[in-house]
Amino acid sequence: MHKPSVQAPRAVVMIRPHHFHPNPATAADNAFQAREAPEGAPVAAAAHAEVTRAAERLEAAGIAVHLFEDEGCDTPDSVFPNNWFSTHAGGHVAIYPMFSPSRRRERRQDVVEMLKQRYRVQDVIDYSGLEQDGVFLEGTGAMVLDHVERVAYAARSNRTNEVALERFCTHFNFEPMVFDAVDAAGRPIYHTNVLMCVGTEFSLIGLGAIPDAARRAEVAARLAEGGRAVIDLSHDEIAAFAGNAIELQGREGRVLALSARALAALGPAQRTRLERFAVLLPLEVPTIELAGGSVRCMLAGIHLAPRPGAAAT
Q: Within 13 Å and on the Cβ side, how many CA atoms surround 240?
């Protein structure tokens, strides 16, 4: 069994939507989002069921899931809570400025209050006021955080402002590593966490999406420091959300949560390498993926110490 790691949280927050649909307000800069996605009650019901099954599978693996309901009709992307908050060792919580006004309604005080009740929270740093200045940083979508080496990887986009990133890194003691990244059509990739995943002993990254050769080499070298295996992803694998994964600490060791589509996109050699470091846990979320995000976006990891006697709910 792998030892517990600061990179792999034991608990997550999930939001179960009751009125899910791909959000037209976010489609302009999210090329991963389906352009002619179905809507209506069947789609909402399918997304609700996918979250329910994903939570059950995570809990069966020994991961604590704090599952919140969203019965509202005006928060279609609420299933992706990792964009509006993150948690950090030492008792710190960050709240983020969101690019789309439609997504700012996703921030929930009841989630923050649960964190305070169940975990040791010392402070909450709220960056959401930067929205008034047109400055955005969409949490662990905009940043992929290496909690071991203390690096914040960030691809430039409408959703990742370097001023906000520098402020976050100063507060939370991360080294910023910023780069440009584009998809196969040359469009900027909207969130860093669809491009890459950092685990304790491995990283998944589409190095070919970084057009500047020198910066590409620097990112690869930084990921490899400390002995991490760097597993490269193709544009097709990125498009199938193979980079949108998260390492978690389960009952029997580390698991890599990713979508069934993402796992199917990986080749046998890539799977074999990943299985050296974590048990692969594929989750069926095809409806939710219509909105341009996948499993990593659905899981807000909790990097906080639990209060004694506080049970997961």
A: 17
**Which H helix or E strand runs over 177?**
strand 175-179
| Other beta carbons within 10 Å of 52 | 13
**Residue 38 in contact with residue 100, Cβ under 8 Å?**
no
In this structure, are strands 246-249 and 123-126 parallel, antiparallel, or unpaired? unpaired
pLDDT digits (tens, 9 = 90+) for 256-274: 999 999 999 999 999 999 9
Q: What is the pLDDT of residue 39?
A: 65
* Ramachandran angles phi, psi of 205, nearest 5°: -155, 140
Residue 83's closest CA among 128, 43, 25, 46?
A: 128
Tell me the per-residue pLDDT of 26-41, one tens digit each, with 9 for 90 and over. 655 656 656 666 666 7
- b vs e for 142-164, b when ≥16 Cβ sit within 10 Å of the residue's Cβ? bbbbbbbeebbbbbbbbbbbeeb
Residue type, 87: T
Read off the amino acid at residue 131.
E
Domains of the chain: 11-302 (3.75.10.10)
Six token digits for residue 180: 């440009």
Name the pTM for this structure. 0.94
